[in-house]
Amino acid sequence: MANGSILVIGGDNQSMATNGIDYIVDGRATRQIYDPKSGSWTYLPHMTSNRWYPTVVTMKNGGSIIFSGTTSNLDFGNVAKGENNNNPTYEYWPQKSGNWPVELDILKWAYPHVLYPMAFQLPSGGIFLFVSNKTIIIDPETDQISFTVPDMPQMDHSPWIYPHSPYMIMLPLSKETDYKSILQICGGSTNAVTSDITDKPASAMCWRINPDDSYPGWTRVDDMPHARLMIDGVLLPGNKLSLV
């Protein structure tokens, strides 16, 4: 969050036992704030719906926008069984006035590849949302949607989202790049045909795009030295990126 606290959204519903005591944990609709200075938790009113594996983005006004998830954990071995669990919606914290959550066609279309979609606050003010291989940009002031970013080119790659998880990061906004909002995505899974949707070889592929360009387009850049799946990235001093 803008003040350094951590907003925790959604979660799982499962039974668990500790020291012989049974507990039922249901965090799917929860909103909690952790203050690292005091080590304390603040429990907020629940969301309008359950969310398992959603994405949350801090906005320039200090609030948060919350995307996607499913109402219960999803079995990728039997996705049809969980189709009614899809939550193709978004909402805000603090909550906006109006009828929330609001459905997004891109999240309805992409099921079951809707978990942990990639989203960023752009310098232009819009919210970039990348799902599978498609992008929309939402104006958080008006909730108008634009489709100015083209689809990711077709290639030997599975949908660019969980469980074929690549990693996307906004590169440093620097004078050298005229403070352009360049997003880079790397890794994930190839599109090899296998009997298990989650069992595919990793990819080393990397692409970049500036969604705020007048005519944005995807540009392929150097592959990673090693193929990686479910990776993470950290910006280092000197405008370098470390992928793990």
Task: Walk me through this protein's architecture.
This protein has 244 residues and is an all-beta fold. The chain folds into 2 domains: 1-147, Kelch-type beta propeller (Neuraminidase), CATH 2.120.10; 152-244, no CATH class. The protein has 1 helix and 19 strands. It has one helix at 105-110; strands at residues 6-9, 13-18, 21-26, 31-35, 40-44, 55-58, 64-67, 89-93, 102-103, 118-121, 127-131, 134-138, 145-146, 166-170, 183-187, 206-209, 219-221, 233-236, 240-243. The strands form 6 sheets. The protein has a 4-stranded antiparallel sheet. Strand 11 and strand 12 (134-138) form a beta hairpin. The longest helix is centred in the middle third of the chain and has 6 residues, at 105-110.
In whole angstroms, the N-to-C terminal distance is 24 Å
Shape: globular
Main β sheet profile: 4 strands, antiparallel
> Could you tell me the number of beta strands?
19
CATH superfamily of the largest domain: Kelch-type beta propeller
Could you spell the SSE succession in H and E letters?
Answer: EEEEEEEEEHEEEEEEEEEE
Please report the first level of CATH classification, the CATH class of the largest domain: Mainly Beta
Helix share, percent: under 10%
Label the structural class: mainly beta
Q: Quickly give the CATH architecture of the largest domain.
A: 6 Propeller
Kindly report the average pLDDT value: 90
| CATH-derived topology of the largest domain | Neuraminidase
Which residues form runs of ≥5 with pLDDT under 50? none
Domain tally: 2
Oligomer: single chain
How much is the radius of gyration in Å? 19 Å
SS field, number of helical segments: 1
Strand line-up across the major sheet: 6-7-8-9
What percentage of amino acids are in beta strands? 25-35%
